[in-house]
């Protein structure tokens, strides 16, 4: 077990849930408050005036959530050493209150200079005019994972930069797979056979999948992406849920419940680890934080009983990507220093140091060439998966639309609706909600 992996904590797991919960709870907060003016700034991609290379100076106020807020001071101190005339003031904000706190700050005109922001919040907050577009030439967008960079883009304009990334891969019991004589699956057909074989080898359930409910859209949506389906059409004006790709995604997903392969209950944090360790569940999908949780709870000997693999797929093996971005507010009192700090945090060498401090995965691809990631049997798989990962569109109404997917998926896995009726309902309700753009 590597030192960095060993330092990961369950706070990483809570971030997926807390970020989504805040987005859902506060989805309508900005509808009647804050600014109404649109994006500003010039340049080829809508960005503002370029930032020079002179040392940063003055004070920069930064809001960061969860574990990041608690440990960012350690990294910021290095930036202050390199820029003696600057002071970085970090405020740690709990994930549970972060969305509403940002919304309230925007409405009251009391924003910090820089904020960390959940990837699914960008469209909502950018629509208020509160975020400044990323300055032209600040960073090279091609240096980031494509799916990660796309989380910053709203109507072809980037707002901020990706700070760290998360993606999901397949966790599986290697001992059960070896007993069944199978390698990790690469296709949908192999995936179903693989999970059934894990049951034959001793697991009660071949795989644990959310049977709908909160944030289950993150599990069903990649199945549509893998077939070439999407959430919006090419011009981003219309939803595309009522399509063969989405219906097939629902059919394939629900078949695991119909055939008794998937655990019918929703296993929450703490439950899934134990079910996997004791062999009740043979496989599940999750992010990198689960590596350390399994090693801690299962003990050193369990390291030889599980592995991770890229998600199996159809035409592609696309997975969901999430993480955290950094954005600068239009009302910042120290624009140049704010963007210089963001740029510095985006450098590969900085991101490698940041992983050692926080265990956040780098958003910059070059950082993954470091042995910390390239030679780690777990992290290297996440690096491969990030080459084929995607996020939902950055639209202000995504929290509302995704809640409809959650609801219909739960009805489908219970047999209360058909895949065809589910996607038709999602299409109708999403169209009624609109994109908010």
UniProtKB/TrEMBL annotation:
Gene3D superfamilies reported in the protein's UniProt record: Periplasmic binding protein-like II
Domain of life from the UniProt record: Bacteria
Signal peptide range in chain numbering: 1-31
Keywords associated with the record: Signal, Transport
InterPro entries: Bact_solute-bd_prot1, SBP
PROSITE patterns for the chain: PROKAR_LIPOPROTEIN
Protein name: Sugar ABC transporter substrate-binding protein
Organism of this sequence: Microbacterium salsuginis
């Amino acid at each position: 077990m590597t030192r960095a992996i060993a330092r990961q904590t369950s706070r990483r797991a809570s971030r997926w849930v807390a970020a989504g919960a805040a987005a859902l709870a506060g989805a309508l907060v900005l509808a009647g408050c804050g600014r109404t003016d649109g994006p500003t700034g010039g340049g080829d991609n809508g960005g503002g005036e370029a930032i020079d290379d002179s040392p940063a100076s003055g004070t920069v106020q930064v809001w960061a959530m969860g574990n990041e807020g608690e440990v960012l001071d350690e990294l910021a101190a290095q930036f202050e050493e390199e820029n003696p005339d600057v002071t970085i003031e970090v405020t740690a904000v709990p994930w549970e209150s972060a969305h509403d706190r940002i919304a309230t700050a925007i409405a009251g005109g009391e924003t910090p200079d820089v904020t960390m922001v959940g990837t699914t919040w960008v469209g909502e907050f950018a629509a208020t005019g509160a975020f400044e577009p990323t300055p032209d030439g600040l960073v090279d967008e091609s240096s980031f994972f494509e799916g990660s960079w796309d989380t910053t883009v709203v109507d072809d304009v980037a707002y901020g930069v990706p700070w760290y990334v998360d993606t999901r891969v397949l966790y599986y019991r290697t001992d059960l797979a070896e007993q069944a004589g199978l390698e990790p699956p690469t296709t949908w057909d192999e995936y179903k056979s693989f999970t059934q074989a894990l049951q034959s080898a001793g697991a009660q359930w071949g795989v644990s999948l959310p049977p709908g409910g909160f944030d289950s859209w993150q599990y069903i949506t990649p199945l549509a992406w893998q077939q070439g389906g999407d959430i919006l059409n090419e011009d981003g004006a219309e939803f595309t849920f009522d399509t063969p790709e989405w219906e097939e995604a629902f059919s394939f997903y629900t078949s695991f419940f119909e055939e008794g392969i998937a655990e019918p209950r929703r296993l929450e944090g703490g439950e899934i680890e134990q079910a996997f360790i004791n062999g009740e569940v043979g496989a599940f999908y999750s992010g990198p934080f689960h590596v350390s949780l399994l090693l801690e709870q299962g003990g050193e000997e369990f390291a030889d009983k599980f592995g991770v693999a890229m998600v199996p797929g159809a035409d592609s093996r696309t997975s969901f990507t999430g993480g955290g971005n950094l954005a600068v507010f239009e009302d910042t009192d120290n624009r140049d220093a704010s963007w210089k700090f963001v740029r510095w945090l985006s450098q590969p060498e900085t991101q490698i140091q940041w992983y050692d401090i926080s265990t956040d995965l780098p958003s910059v691809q070059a950082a993954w060439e470091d042995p910390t990631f390239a030679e780690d049997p777990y992290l290297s798989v996440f690096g491969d998966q990030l080459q084929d990962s995607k996020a939902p569109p950055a639209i202000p109404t995504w929290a509302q639309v995704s809640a409809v997917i959650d609801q219909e998926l739960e009805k489908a896995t219970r047999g209360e609706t058909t895949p065809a009726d589910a996607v038709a309902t999602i299409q109708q309700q999403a169209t009624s909600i609109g994109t908010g753009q």
